Amino acid sequence: xxxxxxxxxxxxxxxxxxxxxxxxxxxxxxxxxxxxxxxxxxxxxxxxxxxxxxxxxxxxxxxxxxxxxxxxxxxxxxxxxxxxxxxxxxxxxxxxxxxxxxxxxxxxxxxxxxxxxxxxxxxxxxxxxxxxxxxxxxxxxxxxxxxxxxxxxxxxxxxxxxxxxxxxxxxxxxxxxxxxxxxxxxxxxxxxxxxxxxxxxxxxxxxxxxxxxxxxxxxxxxxxxxxxxxxxxxxxxxxxxxxxxxxxxxxxxxxxxxxxxxxxxxxxxxxxxxxxxxxxxxxxxxxxxxxxxxxxxxxxxxxxxxxxxxxxxxxxxxxxxxxxxxxxxxxxxxxxxxxxxxxxxxxxxxxxxxxxxxxxxxxxxxxxxxxxxxxxxxxxxxxxxxxxxxxxxxxxxxxxxxxxxxxxxxxxxxxxxxxxxxxxxxxxxxxxxxxxxxxxxxxxxxxxxxxxxxxxxxxxxxxxxxxxxxxxxxxxxxxxxxxxxxxxxxxxxxx
Length: 495
Ligand code: IVH
What we know:
Elements: H1 16-36, H2 43-59, E1 83-84, E2 93-95, H3 98-112, E3 120-126, E4 129-136, E5 139-145, E6 151-152, E7 162-163, E8 175-182, H4 185-197, H5 206-215, E9 225-233, H6 247-257, E10 270-272, H7 275-288, E11 296-303, H8 306-312, E12 322-326, E13 331-343, E14 349-360, E15 363-369, H9 373-378, E16 382-383, E17 386-390, E18 398-402, E19 412-413, E20 427-428, E21 435-436, H10 444-452, H11 464-472, H12 487-494
Parallel strand pairs: 2-12, 7-9
Antiparallel strand pairs: 1-6, 3-10, 3-11, 4-5, 4-8, 8-9, 11-12, 13-14, 13-17, 14-15, 16-19, 17-18, 20-21
Bound molecules: 2-(butylsulfanyl)adenosine.
Residues 90-92, 123, 125-126, 130, 146, 180, 230-231, 262, 300, 319, 322, 324 line the site of 2-(butylsulfanyl)adenosine.
């Protein structure tokens, strides 16, 4: 199997055969994602393919496959499980531009027969897995996955490991919190360390890790995750929500009961009067994205009023009163073509990944940082691997993991250096970060030049040529020597 996004094909379909092939690729991608737990293609490639299929279906309604994945929750590929949901657990329709958000607003207006009067809420679209958490008399009794929206799987084995979903509430409330469970970035790194210590492969990304962790019932270790509610329903006929509660009020009731909600995230839950203001909040949350401690793949806009929600109603896959404004992908899959090593100012050997070019958050990425040899070994990275690469905002792109299932037969483990790539000398391998055995002396010239720079010692006129001469004369062997240089030593070096 090959990675689709690496090809970067922009997809348009000219005939039925191509449509059917595209539908099959969507099915394959969803099946491996929900079944085997890895992604054949990244979200950007998946969304593009799905939009092309939807376009074709809109133009050829008579030829649309009756079981097309576009019309089903989780593309009809999620394991359904055997626990019936109290009320359907639905997905969201997507928009990608301000114009599409305006068009969604117009369709909501048509359904209501008037301008929405109850305002909108705006909150992050967290990139994890949807679950329903059932509390009875204040005790967390069951956690269920979304499944096909009607039935989900019982994943109560994670009770006690999810921050934000306490096993015992301070009040004896009975209700079902609905929301997203995920690994925060910090939890993701801790999870991968635990897995490496148990000889298990690292997760390709937090979302795959979440799906895998919910599914795995017999691991010898437990991994901490986090939950934020984005909704709630009543359970067993026990009253919980204030009469006529809209979305913001519903989440406030959940928070009062002691469960975390999207309002508790650093991105927050915002209530606004108009869709224009909602767009402003979408932009504000998008701007926060790189600094958030967890992944978001969009921002969700909802009509706040319970009455307007009821009037707008639901389709087969999603409610008409809510929409996801999808943000550009910050994670893509591409091929790891090579790794080169450099010596930093402190003598540390730093590996850089050479990648097949991939569009990521507004730029073309061809290089990404890798941490150190131990990390490369822990991730079992091979040259030729399809890898997940993450970049958001000004963050330097980083390689997260290999998609092991897509590894070609001729892939080779990333070669580790046997000698210093700068001076050819020995390597000190006593720590996780390998260093040239000569330490800072190996890359002394860049170190001195850096120390003399404006941000540190700010020594006017001490450029690379001067530094090279001072090192060659033996007058400077480390940064401290700069402070004891005599006029004579400087004059000789400058001449
Ligand atoms: S509302 C009936 N709000 O995104 C309303 N969903 O792509 C349905 N998600 O299945 C969901 N953050 O798993 C909602 N703030 C949020 C969300 C959110 C993440 C997930 C959820 C949903 C998926 C749709």
